[in-house]
Amino acid sequence: MAEKPVCSQPRSAAEWRSEKPLSRARAGDLALLMGPDRRWQIVRLEPGQSVHTHRGVLAHDDLIGRPWGSQVASHTGQPFLLLTPSLHDLILRLRRTTQIVYPKEAGYILLKMNIGPGSRVVEAGSGSGALTAVLAHAVRPDGRVYSYEVRPEMQQLARRNLERLGLADVVEFKIRDIAEGFDEVNVDALFLDLPNPWDYLEQAHAALVNGGYLGSLLPTANQVTRLLEALESPRWGLVEVEEILLRPYKAVSARFRPEDRMVAHTGFLIFARALLIEESTG
Amino acid sequence: MAEKPVCSQPRSAAEWRSEKPLSRARAGDLALLMGPDRRWQIVRLEPGQSVHTHRGVLAHDDLIGRPWGSQVASHTGQPFLLLTPSLHDLILRLRRTTQIVYPKEAGYILLKMNIGPGSRVVEAGSGSGALTAVLAHAVRPDGRVYSYEVRPEMQQLARRNLERLGLADVVEFKIRDIAEGFDEVNVDALFLDLPNPWDYLEQAHAALVNGGYLGSLLPTANQVTRLLEALESPRWGLVEVEEILLRPYKAVSARFRPEDRMVAHTGFLIFARALLIEESTG
Amino acid sequence: MAEKPVCSQPRSAAEWRSEKPLSRARAGDLALLMGPDRRWQIVRLEPGQSVHTHRGVLAHDDLIGRPWGSQVASHTGQPFLLLTPSLHDLILRLRRTTQIVYPKEAGYILLKMNIGPGSRVVEAGSGSGALTAVLAHAVRPDGRVYSYEVRPEMQQLARRNLERLGLADVVEFKIRDIAEGFDEVNVDALFLDLPNPWDYLEQAHAALVNGGYLGSLLPTANQVTRLLEALESPRWGLVEVEEILLRPYKAVSARFRPEDRMVAHTGFLIFARALLIEESTG
Amino acid sequence: MAEKPVCSQPRSAAEWRSEKPLSRARAGDLALLMGPDRRWQIVRLEPGQSVHTHRGVLAHDDLIGRPWGSQVASHTGQPFLLLTPSLHDLILRLRRTTQIVYPKEAGYILLKMNIGPGSRVVEAGSGSGALTAVLAHAVRPDGRVYSYEVRPEMQQLARRNLERLGLADVVEFKIRDIAEGFDEVNVDALFLDLPNPWDYLEQAHAALVNGGYLGSLLPTANQVTRLLEALESPRWGLVEVEEILLRPYKAVSARFRPEDRMVAHTGFLIFARALLIEESTG
Q1: Using one digit for the tens of pLDDT, what is the confidence trace for C149-181?
Q2: What is the pTM of this model?
Q3: Smallest Cα distance from C267 to chain A, Å
Q4: Are residues B105 and B179 in the same domain?
Q5: 3-class SS at D251?
Q6: Where among A29, A61, A83 does a domain terminate?
Q7: Which of B158, B157, B139 is nearest to B147 (CA)?
Q8: D239 contacts D231 by C-beta, under 8 angstroms
Q9: What is the mean pLDDT of residues A107-115?
Q10: CB-CB neighbors (< 8 A) of A84 in chain B
Q11: Which residues of C touch D10 (CB under 8 A)?
């Protein structure tokens, strides 16, 4: 450790540069710009373009080549932070025409349904592609996401969103009324993100590997009770319903407190496992 | 679609077998066994062994070779479900001597800190290895987790837990007082899971790529205000504090309701981004 | 203000006594005793009796005559605090054979249903008398609580609990199947604390003053949707459903944090107002 | 019961009138008017006046004399409900220049601090009078509320609010810097609704009866830890910190679900009991 001195002073970019190459914004990158009012937006950097904000204009050419994590002034002198966006940030700013699965639920779904690198996952419907993006990000590089949607224009949006995020290569989009069933068999996990999942449990069971994971997200208690009724069958087990609440706080050391208002409900998460029926296990 | 008939009847194992090979429990696999009282345990299947439960004994030899998702009777005739455990289940049943990072937080950490296949992540301390496991699972196969711990016996436990889960190959365990700094530079994300993260911000900043993600999980408001104070510096930005609450429900269609009691607090999540200081960005 | 010096030192009982008479425990009083482990119990002080706790025995004769708010030692030398119990404390320790309405809901019900001194309130059923006690306490001295119950032995318990609390004088207990209707008309508020309130809305409407307050508390979402369906009528308006969550914290200045576990659900509160039907208001 | 038939049809005002006198809006009453969009307002009925809403105009003269709970049409034909406002409604619509204590906390405070008919309660400061109103309503007719405030114009607002609610008769308003102490002794309960309650604990202790109830409401964790530190003294006991969360639901039988957004934080409630110090209890 002797050769690596502990930093005891704020490092300037110069010092940083001396010991390691700085990571820089390049043309084509997605960039998150956060202004002094904590408002932020995500843009794709393209030579010759400019970003218009409530606090002034920034030229892309001033951003391209600049190190990530540095501060840039708008034409009115307002300071902006230049950062890579996280998957979390990208999902919150996805172009959308539907309610999306939020990061607070999406991250939990991954762990609960055991989705990771190499998993084969079916999703219906594609919606705006928010969950599709989280699934695609998680199963790379060897896994596969099969995303079904009955409305072509909706899937077109999801597809464009995934392409924009550079995640489309592990996704197969299919236009289909899933009442007709899924093409895949033996998938590890299957997520029904549509208003009437109880109508497609046969099809879901047929696509899942024995013991595989079923998930769904529903906004109303009426929908949950209806799905639970359909899951009260020997073909499904370990049925669980959970809700994830995200409570944001004011991140100020001298006045630390929960925020005044919060998102109080997105939906109920329902999970189950596909079982082999009883007479068959002898 | 003509050649794939839609399932309209519960499929027996026989039918399932006819169209796709059943996935079966093998010696060496980790298996989750859930009894009729919804109590469950995780065992590694080994020929000649047996599992003792409150509802009777099951011989591993009766489980090995059986399809996942099927039902097995204990010697007293009680029905058990045989299932693969998810990462979620495995973490909840990890051997531990410390408080662990729970799945509800771990899944959110992944999205918020942009951790996925290929990420390089530092963690301190290793603890019992719960977060290490989630990180390792997410960054495979090409990413890397560097897990620092000052107490050798603790890291020994984390290492054994990761080996048991088959995730140790992407983790480098290091015994180190991180006051001395981290060996890595330009890591994508760094998580401080220890009681005094404010003491190691210099070291964390030195290890992170410019713009990289810092995370921490702290149980008390006092710790949070102290960390926030240390983060109120031009070297850190986008500081956020959040709390994740998981509300479980009774999954019964005719009596759907929140559970009577819940885990009300595990910790506050703190996130920040590593910045280049102002004078350096010109 | 000159004649009333500001206390700047802790006041001893002697000082306190010099300026104002101390309030003291008397035979017949209900007393709350809190031990060093924060466990507490409520006893009625009777000469010659003694209290047995996990931390030793206290003689009632040692407590009678002692000032409230003082410390008493058990026979093993453990310190106990001697305090008057609040209505909140008394309700939590009520003898009960049923689920009770908790203080977190009861206090809110009072404000939401405009119940205060002088109110005339109907309640069905009596249950163990927890809500009865809160209502009786609030409407004194000139108001009235009419408490209906179909099970005589249950009402006997409620009656004894109210007598023990000295609140029985403003309550009229009635054994009745409320399908037969209530005796009262023009009551200000009516609370249905039973599993099937939708069966008694006619009777409730007949007992309430025009514009009066209906309330109910139900544990399951299924019950709520069924009651809402019955309330979707021109005879009821301003229908609201709310849930009250009480989050307890560790009250330690150096380690302030939410408690690990909490009561996550007691019930959903439903409120409505009794309306005159449309054609009648001309 | 034979003479009181069970209502089986919606009662018209005519039928209602036949068995009991209808309660009617009179000049001088406060009236709540709820329009078809569930927006509501509270007005005092005065002959010759009119109410202007987003859905048309209502003449007070059309409301005066009309039964409560009936429907009235605005000049554009939009239906409005005419109802008596509850204390809950009145508080939410109080004229205010400060953050107020909300009903969800106020109702709980009453039970926790044992405040009811006959109680003598001190409050500082008066603020906009929201808590003052709840206290005054609860202690009538024989109790007393002593409300201290250092800013005359603020107390003027509180006083006017209490007068408007008809609750001023049980309240004594005092302009005072409470650092000088309170005039009262042996009060049952004392509530510190100001940003630095730790500065006034001596004065509060001097005003309370031995064993009396102290309460406070603070927005930030920093304030709570500071108050807890001051309460960690032999003069105070049974210290508790709690938070009340009110979760509203969509009251629609076919789509029952939590509302999308909620008030996530108003403040932390702190309670304690005034003790006699140790050497004094002999």
Answers
A1: 999 999 999 999 999 999 999 999 999 999 999
A2: 0.93
A3: 15
A4: yes
A5: coil
A6: A83
A7: B158
A8: yes
A9: 96
A10: 114, 211
A11: 233-235, 277
Tokens matching residue B232: 């109120």
In a domain, A7, yes or no: no
> Tell me, what's the ipTM?
0.92
Whether B108 and B49 share a structural domain: no
The DSSP bridge pattern shows strands C187-192 and C120-124 to be parallel
Cross-strand pairs, B58? B51
Compare all CA atoms of chain B with the CA of C195 and give the residue at the minimum distance: B255
Strands in D54-186 per DSSP E: 56-59, 70-73, 79-83, 120-124, 144-149, 171-175
Co-location of A67 and A169 in the same domain: no
pLDDT in tens, D192-240: 999 999 999 999 999 999 999 999 999 999 999 999 999 999 999 999 9
How far does C124 lie from chain B, in Å, by closest CA?
22
pLDDT of residue B99: 85
One domain for residues C126 and C41: no
CATH number for position B220: 3.40.50.150
d(C-alpha D175, C-alpha C246), whole Å: 34
**Same-domain pairing of A209 and A275:** yes
* Distance in angstroms (rounded) separating the CA atoms of residues D168 and D152: 17
Report yes or no: D274 and D239 within 8 Å, Cβ to Cβ: no
D237 and D216 in a common domain: yes
Number of domains in chain D: 2
As a whole number of angstroms, the distance between CA D44 and CA D32 comes to: 9
Q: What are phi and psi of B5, to 5 degrees?
A: -65, 145
**Best interface-test mutation with D: which of C81, C90, C110, C220 has the largest number of D CBs within 10 A?**
C110
Q: How far is C72 from chain A (nearest CA, A)?
A: 38
pLDDT under 50: residue ranges of chain B:
1-8, 279-282
Chain B: nearest CA to A268, how far in angstroms? 9
Distance CA C1, CA A14 (A): 66
Q: Which residues does chain D have within 8 Å of residue A220's beta carbon, measured at their own beta carbons? A: 255-257
Interface residues of D toward A, Cβ cutoff 8 Å, are 219-222, 247-248, 254-266
Neighbour tally for B123: CB within 10 Å: 26
Q: Can you give the CATH number for the domain in which C51 is found?
A: 3.10.330.20
pLDDT digits over C36-77, tens only?
A: 999 999 999 999 999 999 999 999 999 999 999 999 999 999
Could B225 and D224 be called an inter-chain contact, meaning their C-beta atoms sit closer than 8 Å?
Answer: no
> Is A4 within the bounds of a domain?
no
Verify that D139 and D276 share a domain, yes or no.
Answer: yes
Neighbors of chain D by Cβ distance (3+ pairs < 8 Å): A, B, C
**End-to-end alpha-carbon separation of chain B, Å?**
61
Instruction: Using CB atoms, pick whichever of C220, C261, C266 lies closest to residue B264.
Output: C261
| pLDDT tens column, C196-245 | 999 999 999 999 999 999 999 999 999 999 999 999 999 999 999 999 99
Instruction: Say which residue the tokens 């690198």 belong to.
Output: A117
Whether D9 is in a domain gets the answer no
Domain boundary among A63, A83, A103: A83
- CB–CB contact A256 D219 (8 Å): no
> Within a 10 A sphere around the Cβ of D251, how many other Cβ atoms?
21
- Closest CA of chain C from A263, distance in Å: 16
Supply the range of the domain harboring residue C189: 89-281
- Checking if the pLDDT of A280 tops 50, the result is no
Pair of tokens at residue A197? 């999942």
CB contact under 8 A, C7 and D212: no
Residue A201 lies in a domain: yes
Q: Looking at beta carbons, which residues of chain C come within 8 Å of A222? A: 225
Token pair, residue D33, equals 């008017």
Give chain D's contact residues with B (Cβ, < 8 Å): 221-222, 224-225
pLDDT attached to residue A100:
87
Note whether C253 contacts D4, CB cutoff 8 Å: no
In whole angstroms, what separates CA D260 from the centre of its chain?
26
Q: Are residues C176 and C256 in the same domain?
A: yes
